[in-house]
Structures are given as C-alpha cells and as structure tokens.
C-alpha cells in the first residue's frame, strides 16, 4: 500500500520504519525543519510541507494514497489532516493519533477518522488487562466509534472451561475474534474449547460490552 504519514517526529518515524520494513510505500510529511531528517528513514519519501494546507497535500500526491496516518503531536492538526484526507482526497483508510484523551470524542467519522489511536488509553488498557480478571477492558475504538475491540480474561475456575465456543450465547452485536492462550493466538472455530486463563477479544458496540461480561458469568 501507499501510506502517507503526517508528522515525522519520533512516532511518525517509528511507524514509517515498520511500514517500510513490511514492504509498503511510505511518504512522510513534516513542516518543522528540526524533524525533517530523510536519513532517519531513507526508504521513505520525504515532503517538507504543512499537512494542513490543501495545496501542499495535492502537490505531495495524497490522492494516490491508500492510507493516511495523522501522527503529529497536535490533536488539532491531526483532525484537520484526517478531514482533508477523507473529504478532499477520498482516502480509503484514515488513522489518527489522539494525544489528549479528553479530545478522543472528536475523532469520529465527522472528522474523517476511521480509527482513533489514543496512546494513553492503550497504555492504561494494557495495565488493566494485565491485572483484571472478569472485567471488560476496551483496547481500541474502530470504525468511527461504532465498534470497539475489547478484552475479557476468564478466571481459572470459570464454568466455561471445556465448553465449546459454539455454546457461548453472546449479544447480537458482539463477535469473538481471537482467543489468546499462553503464547498462542487462536482464531476461534465453533468446536474449539475454552480454558481458564484465556483472554477473549471481541469486536462489539459499547452498548453491549457489559452484556458480554454477564454472558460469561461476571
């Protein structure tokens, strides 16, 4: 894919390096001369420009991108970049970094955001996930806030141990997508059985998150 990243600070460069190593074409857009360092990610295309200016994005060829990542340290900039990418250039996938969790409610379809990534929320979720049994932990918001990726860990004495995935009665708007067991990642099939200590990942709406918890006996 061709990916444009707005913001070539530490976060933007790290994302670019990962994507380049996976074989994607990456363009880094950076206004600040202090952060403009093509030698740091040599395989990427570098553009020194203001990512909030429509003409700059046109000249950079954003209309040719499959994905845009707004990764600056300024939430206002990330929102403007997301809106321009979606409305002016019809970019299929727009991912935006949320720096201040209090601004997370803004990062929705109205601003062109498909996926909002809040580092503070993710770090907090990782802490909760590591110590919490039986509670729903929200890991990520997907599809303009219409769905969430959530996790719940079964305790060792769960009554669902040994029961098949097909026996789970989940709410209508919840889908079990992954079971994490030890070092394994299991894509659940109807006949797969659950074990105590399993970490279950669901894609669901916020409205039924607590229903998932109740369905698992918590």
Write structural notes for this entry.
By secondary structure, this protein is of the alpha/beta class. It has helices at 10-21, 54-60, 75-87, 119-131, 209-215, and strands at residues 2-6, 25-30, 45-48, 67-70, 93-98, 115-118, 137-142, 147-153, 174-181, 184-186, 199-204. The protein has a 6-stranded parallel sheet with strand order 3-2-1-4-5-6, sandwiched between helices. The longest helix is centred in the middle third of the chain and has 13 residues, at 75-87. The relative contact order is 0.11. This is Trk system potassium uptake protein TrkA. InterPro entries: K_uptake_TrkA, NAD(P)-bd_dom_sf, RCK_C, RCK_C_sf, RCK_N, Trk_Ktr_HKT_K-transport. Keywords: Ion transport, NAD, Potassium, Potassium transport, Transport.
Main β-sheet, spatial strand arrangement:
3-2-1-4-5-6
Beta-strand level of the residues, as a percent range? 25-35%
Radius of gyration: 20 Å
Structural class estimated from helices and strands: alpha/beta
Task: Characterize the largest beta sheet: strand count, sense, and whether it forms a barrel.
Answer: 6 strands, parallel
- Which percent bin holds the helix content? 10-25%
- Globular, elongated, flat, extended or rod-shaped: what is the shape? elongated
Query: What's the total helix number?
Result: 5
Number of strands: 11
What is the oligomer described by this structure?
single chain
- The ordered string of helix (H) and strand (E) elements is EHEEHEHEEHEEEEEH
Q: What is the rounded distance between the termini? A: 42 Å
> Average pLDDT across residues?
89
Extract low-pLDDT stretches: none
């Amino acid at each position: 894919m061709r990916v444009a990243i707005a913001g070539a600070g530490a976060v933007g460069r790290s994302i670019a390096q990962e994507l380049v190593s996976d074989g994607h074409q990456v363009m880094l857009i950076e206004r600040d001369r202090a952060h403009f360092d093509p030698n740091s990610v040599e395989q990427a295309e570098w553009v020194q420009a203001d990512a909030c200016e429509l003409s700059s994005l046109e000249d950079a060829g954003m209309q040719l991108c499959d994905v845009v990542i707004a990764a600056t340290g300024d939430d206002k900039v990330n929102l403007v970049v997301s809106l321009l990418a979606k409305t002016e250039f019809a970019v299929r996938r727009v991912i935006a970094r949320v720096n201040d969790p209090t601004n997370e409610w803004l990062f929705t379809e109205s601003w062109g955001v498909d996926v909002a990534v809040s580092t503070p929320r993710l770090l907090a979720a990782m802490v909760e996930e590591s110590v919490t049994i039986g509670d729903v932990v929200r890991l990520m918001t997907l599809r303009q806030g219409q769905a969430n990726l959530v996790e719940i860990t079964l305790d060792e004495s769960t009554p669902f141990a040994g029961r098949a995935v097909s026996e789970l009665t989940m709410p209508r708007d919840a889908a079990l997508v992954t079971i994490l067991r030890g070092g394994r990642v299991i894509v659940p099939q109807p006949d797969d059985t659950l074990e105590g200590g399993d970490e279950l990942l669901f894609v669901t709406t916020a409205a039924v998150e607590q229903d998932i918890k109740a369905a698992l006996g918590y």
